[in-house]
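Researcher: Last one for today. Full complex below.
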Amino acid sequence: MYLDIGNVLETSPGITEETLERLDERVEIAHERIAAGMEAEEHGYAALSLPETVDTEEIRAAVEPFGTPEAVLTVGIGGSALGAATISAALSDQTDVEAHFLDNVDPEDTAALLESLPLEETVVNVVSRSGTTAETLANFLVVRQAMEDAGVDWTEQAFVTTGEEGNLRNLADKHDLPSLKVPDGVPGRFSALSTVGLACGALQGLDIESVVAGAASEKAKLSGSLQNSPGYAYGAVCYSLAERGALTNAMMPYAESLEYFAEWFAQLWAESLGKEGLGQTPARALGATDQHSQLQLYRAGPRDKLVTLVRPREREDIDIPETDLEGLSYLGGAGLGELLDAEFEATEASLAVEGIPNIRIELDRIDAHGIGELLYGMEAATVMYGELAGVSTFTQPAVEWGKKAARGLLGGGEFAEADAVADKLEFTIE
Amino acid sequence: MYLDIGNVLETSPGITEETLERLDERVEIAHERIAAGMEAEEHGYAALSLPETVDTEEIRAAVEPFGTPEAVLTVGIGGSALGAATISAALSDQTDVEAHFLDNVDPEDTAALLESLPLEETVVNVVSRSGTTAETLANFLVVRQAMEDAGVDWTEQAFVTTGEEGNLRNLADKHDLPSLKVPDGVPGRFSALSTVGLACGALQGLDIESVVAGAASEKAKLSGSLQNSPGYAYGAVCYSLAERGALTNAMMPYAESLEYFAEWFAQLWAESLGKEGLGQTPARALGATDQHSQLQLYRAGPRDKLVTLVRPREREDIDIPETDLEGLSYLGGAGLGELLDAEFEATEASLAVEGIPNIRIELDRIDAHGIGELLYGMEAATVMYGELAGVSTFTQPAVEWGKKAARGLLGGGEFAEADAVADKLEFTIE
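Model: Here's the assembly. Have a good evening.
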């Protein structure tokens, strides 16, 4: 992973090389804290050790009974789905096994998905650490029923990733389902490089070993200076820019296969850093498409933004046929990828000349190694940002209220939160 | 379309009922300006007259030669694709004709799409007002070549929506392709309810007449008071909240089929209002999924946000099977949709109790009429916001720089912008 922060040095908000030097002193201290946390396997910090602690052989062995299915359906929500989805999407050109994700409780969408899936050839990968996540368990119950209705023995096609106890563990024990354990100390949004994020790829026959190797290569760069680690540097620079008013971070990959990555990043960034009035709002964007959508705002709107542009340095290209269309002859002989790269550089420069801070992240290629680098680099960035901001990176206290309220509304117990829902102020315009 | 702004009245940022009264005086003046613009068919304002001026019979007649294809491939970018994609996604349960969109120049994605499409049964719907949009024409050239390579006569399966002159118009004339005209005075991002947004739906056999009827019902509510028009009220309230610091608007539908709507809205909002240092950044989110991703930030992060929650009042549900899973018996007998609605209300309340402003938008159902209401309502909202903010709602001057730079980089002429790209400051960390 390559990071280029040249375009935050003469922008507004922006930082100077002097800022970077001062920041580097704080990065050194933060790194010591992070390294100690990794060493002691502290909650959250343990995620940064995954390139060493994850056991890909164990994952391979666990999914081995399924052979090569036609499709994998992962049932999970939030961090239980996004890491796997990111890896599957980035590497979709490497496999014929389709990956689907049931990560919402939308009846229309669920019905359409269940109708389209070859249920008898689909492995269901259920992921929930606690085994009580309402959305995931509800979806699993629906999927299981659909399989039964289709005459499919779900116990032959279900795979479970969960904690040491709870509903899903009991279910796995009872029906002798292949299973993996969610590692301790790894919050869901940091679990892409663990059993949680890799089992789906293993079921698809993807090169999960190279994903882990890519992550390990980025881990090897962690040190007490941001000059050595793209991940730390990204986190530290984003933190500095946010302090100077860049409260939005538009994550804009120039590759359709990284669209899920932007979504994964949005969870990682928002849920880890959005605390105590701090945090930077991730805005998902996609190049070149969103040049025709968001670029006007980024260049001419409020100066509260950082734009992060991501691309591979190499990709398979498709030639644009020669043409005599008026004014378009220049396209003939170029490739679609060349056009995309020209737009990447043009957008980057168009932001810079307006003084809008932007950062370039590049991978050699979007392959298993590259996605491993990117995932690990962004996790290291998040932890570094959290240290510098002094927030509790690995918790998410603000989501509990709503969970209790929803449960209460459905008759799952007495919760004051559910009563508060009834007190809603109404002011309706029809 | 129903709007409920109760949850912006006791929040921070927030407004009071007195603010609304003062705002209403400005809405009256703005409405007069808008109505005059509509009457005179002024650029941009003309879009709000589309429910009356669009000719669905003409659209039906233009696509009639294609009968019922297996798939429709729309080649366009930005406003030339998003409106059609929004309608197709919302109504995907109403048709067996697949809709695909080539709205980026990603070679990997394009190759995968062309490989998966039944080319001999696919209608290609090329959309570009000017007929010179680089991405769209490059993609069209690639698609045409792929059809020729597959032995398919592309001239029998191409459909064009473009202006009165230019490359695509010439091509349509030369090969006698069925075509439609992009209406005058309607910017791309406001063209969902025109030939641009409706031809794809017509090719899919969708009820585009009801889409227009839904829009017309919302148009009928436009008047000199925000109390009568959900669209105007949404625009006016968002404007007021942005002035008070809500610089981000998280658009969060609770329906997978409205995910494209959030993307369409993001273009409409950002490109229309992101000007002269003003504008509200649209953040796309999806309920319930993003409760496990963005809600922590929305509740506990910087108080610069408004959250807009969208849902249908009715939807087909799927029963969650009864279960003896520990602690989950309350789910049995409920529906997935009930769970989703409980989460909607819980999230709304969880924001309100923290004082985070949020707005509820509801439709009776996500059907053709409903999506028409929603699209028109949001367009009216955008125009109202633009009037109140005093910006040039219908232009996008900040995107020209990058277009010239990209063209120059590809050898399409001499542009100073392309030279500026070479001056990039570099500061690389590997």
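Chain A touches chain B through 150 residues (CB under 8 Å). Chain A has two domains: 2-36+213-389, 48-206.
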